Amino acid sequence: MRRVISKLTLAVSVLALPVFAQTPPQSHFDGKSWWDHVKVLADDNMEGRETGSPGLGRAQAYVVEQLKKNGIEPAGADGYYQPVKFIQRQVIEKDSFAALIRDGKSETLTPGNDFNFSTRSDTGGQEISAPLVFVGYGLQIPEKNFDDLSAQNLSGKFVVYLSGSPSEIPAALASHYSTIAERWKSLRAAGVIGIINIANPASMDIPWSRIALNRLHPSMDLAGAEFNESEGLKLFLSFNPAQAEKLFAGSGHSFAELAALAKDRKPLPRFSLAVSLKSHVAVQSTEIESANLVAKLPGSEPVLKNEFVVLSAHLDHIGIGEPVNGDRIYNGGMDDASGSAVLLDVASNLKAHPEKLSRSLLFVFVTAEEKGLLGSRYFATHPTVPAKSMIADINIDMFLPIVPLKFLEVKGLEESDLGDRATSVASSLDVKAIPDQEPLRNRFIRSDQYSFIVKGIPAVKMDVGALPGSPEQKIFKDWLTNRYHAPSDDLDQPKDLSAAALYEEIIRRLLIETANTPVRPQWKPDSFFRRYAAN
Ligand SMILES: [Zn+2]
After folding, report:
1. Which DSSP state fits 355?
2. How far is the CA of 359 from the centre of ligand 1 (A)?
3. Using one digit for the tens of pLDDT, what is the confidence trace for 220-243?
4. CA of 334 to the centre of ligand 1 (A)
């Protein structure tokens, strides 16, 4: 149908010309080539691309085949591949328990309903018990003289904290200190032996029922002591906010009162709880292997071609899980087949329609993002190109082209001049760049760009955005509730091909501009993350 040009459509086109003249300049993309890649990567045959699974192996084989076919050079450790080793951990729930002790009496807690065991728990084959102390947000942020920990004696205790941060703490800083690595550093120094986290009901991406459904899913860590972020942590539980009152009974405070404060990012009190907790967690460990994929498009300038602008996305997803509406395959269409597809599409487009590139471009398809940014962490720690040669990371993860692209939400917008470049590139296409609209969700550290940031490399993550209170924001919210990390993030969901095409054009232009601007991207003088660049 589309190829038939009748006199009528020609006439209409001519009449419509003034309208076309106002639309943004021509994109190099149509959205269809992007979706064609998504269709392969998120097919049921890929079985949700779980790290280390044959399904992810098939997805990687497809990516390699496409890169080869389009003449994008390998830049891994073994061709396009960079092997990565993991330790997988799984809680054996039938051999584990947790109970509250109140006035000498034990109240057994029910996994799934009251709480979930984290596989970071390591009770060393023994039952352990300790008093509980509530520590507000559980954060220690020296830059802002913010300290939830020092006022109480926490030695030998289990601490209870509510996810989130007070409004006086900038989002990026709060995000950084909310990582398990940073949290555990300060908690361990305070003598804490275990952690109970309560999700902030105001900022939960996934309802508790769905979190609980997949609670026995194995977790992974990078193999090797250099990557152990929770050494000495004996117990880690995630508590269901709907059951959290039982932790606070008798303390003089209610969870409802605390959640109301946290919703508005107000200061939280810190106090001892009237209960202790005893627990034993049985965890089974297995070794797993997977790989990152790395490819490059070489630059042309004799010196600058030894520097790289990185475009990254994760190829893994969460595999096969508990059925929802009879579907067990968690396809990960938007999360993040969509981002991997952009890498393939932009790389092959730049190869087919060459642009002047002073620096080289590096395309990194990481593994194990869903396990805690592990593949990118491994890559940023042991890169297949010299570490100092990577000048920027543009990361794509679940950019959600499900509404027209009018606003580009840039995580890290105000942290480096990469944010300024993204703003002007977007603006050249009549798209307005906006900062993170939901700082409570910690998204600046929740995807692979963070692995590059902590190595000092300026980074941004860009998504289709919406303004607060808009109908588009409601669409995103519904998507998170119903499809995020659910089997319905599949090929039968609505998508906006023109939004994807426009997004790809922004990525393409930002890559070209960053590759050709003589000065490397810089952190802003007042950015917290600038400190990493000094190392
Ligand atoms: Zn995900």
Report:
1. -
2. 31
3. 999 998 998 899 999 999 999 999
4. 9
